[in-house]
Specification:
- By secondary structure, this protein is mostly helical.
- It has two domains: 132 residues; 35 residues, no CATH class.
- It has five helices and no strands.
- Helix 1 runs antiparallel to helix 2.
- This is Signal transduction histidine kinase dimerisation/phosphoacceptor domain-containing protein.
- It comes from Elliptochloris bilobata.
- Keywords: Membrane, Transmembrane, Transmembrane helix.
């Protein structure tokens, strides 16, 4: 689109330049013809004055120098206009050349930009195709990963529940062990006192038996040694 628009603008510019060149050539030809006409008129007046010199002077003869001067002035003016036109044409030609060079550079740049845009569009299309293919290839793997993640999450949830249950059981076991330790400690405190209580009880219930036993043991030293 940009290349076609630039080409159409270039064609229009060339056509306008051609029309301007034709008009300039016509103006140059007119100025040259006017200059030649003025020079010819001045020369013709001089010749006419020279021919009428020996004859009686006509009425227009006093105006001949003025007409000759005007013809020379007009000739000089047309010559100056021709030189100005030539210099302006040269300047316009230089400007036209520079404008044409700029236009050519712009056309080259626009063509490069269009080519770069087309290349970028092709690359984007290729990337889109690769992305779609890669997504299609990765969908099964993604589904599998999602399923495995769900399974792992469920397993972790069950493990957390089991850990909580084990924690409760450990706390119960600790409480039971603490209770058992307290009971055993109480039993250990009661065991040493039990023989003393039984001995005191035996002594209080059978006070008369102690002297008899002592005498029997004194009488039978062998029995005492055996005991």
């Amino acid at each position: 689109m940009q290349a076609s628009a630039s080409r159409s603008d270039s064609v229009e510019l060339n056509a306008a330049k051609a029309r301007a060149d034709v008009a300039d050539e016509a103006l140059g030809a007119f100025l040259r013809l006017a200059e030649l006409f003025c020079i010819a008129a001045a020369g013709g007046l001089q010749v006419a004055v020279a021919k009428q010199a020996p004859q009686p002077a006509p009425q227009w003869l006093p105006l001949a120098p003025t007409a000759t001067g005007l013809a020379v002035v007009f000739a000089l003016m047309f010559s100056w206009l021709g030189r100005v036109r030539a210099s302006s044409r040269q300047r316009s030609a230089a400007v036209g050349v520079s404008a044409g060079a700029r236009l050519a550079r712009l056309e080259v740049l626009s063509a490069r930009q269009a080519q770069a845009v087309a290349t970028a569009e092709r690359r984007l299309s290729q990337l889109g195709t690769r992305t779609r293919l890669l997504g299609h290839d990765l969908q099964p793997a993604l589904r599998q990963v999602q399923a495995e993640s769900v399974t792992h999450a469920e397993g972790l949830s069950r493990m957390a529940q089991r850990l909580e249950a084990l924690g409760g059981e450990v706390e119960d076991t600790r409480g039971l062990l603490a209770a058992l330790q307290g009971a055993v400690a109480k039993q250990f405190t009661l065991v040493p006192a039990a023989p003393r209580d039984e001995e005191d009880l035996w002594r209080t219930e059978r006070p008369s038996a102690a002297p008899a036993v002592s005498r029997a043991l004194a009488d039978t030293p062998a029995l005492a040694e055996a005991l």
